[in-house]
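Our consortium's second objective concerns turning raw sequence data into structural hypotheses that experimental partners can test. To show how far this objective has progressed, the report includes one record in full. It was chosen at random from the queue rather than selected for favorable results. The single chain below, 228 residues long, was entered without modification.
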Amino acid sequence: MMRRRTTFLVTFAAALSALAMGGYVLLGDPERTVDTIRLEGFTGAPTLRSPVGEGPSRPVDGLEQLVGGLRSGEAVEDWYVAGVGVDFGPRAWLLTDAIVGDFDGDGVADPVLEELRALEGAEVTLGVRYDSDRDEAGVFTINGSTLRDTDGGPAPWEDPGASREADRAEVALAAEEAVGEGARATDTERVDEDGRRGWQVRVRGSDGQEYHVILDLSGVVVDVRAND
């Protein structure tokens, strides 16, 4: 019994020595190649898409996303999403039936105001830039479609080529449209002072309220103020 155990131990030790010598020869021989060992049951890390950030969902620099139900206010230009007043453009421009894009996704590009009314009550995704108080925001994209240039170019209601000066009648009409249906211009004056050139028009609304409308030289409404 003792001889058999001794024989087994000697044989086992010899096997270990052979394995060790084989490993030494294998590692020490730079010409010898080693086959890849395949491990089963392991999962590699997921491959990242490259380059990162490319694709149709890439955010526009300088814009924040505002998501919520779109609702209108009392005035044509008053719109709100998630408690934030959102600016789609001045009243006078919205009333001109300007066509920019298909924002409601019905396949037809209607005037901006019609597009907004079609979206009223629905959830929208806007690309915006907030004011300092973050309670109002200018809108640049609507549901992924561009309303105005995001790179600092002119807004659709700003015509960089409109160098022609509007006449008095055109200015009065624009001022009346800015105030609303039934409004009437009572005084139109050209302004050229303190470095500002344009027009100012006094307008009486259909309710008897008087307004002071400021326009640039081309007749684009800049501001509408109700007189006390």
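The partners drew two points from this record. Helices lie at 2-28, 91-94, 112-119, 168-179. The first helix runs from residue 2 to 28. Both points have been shared with the crystallography group to help prioritize constructs.
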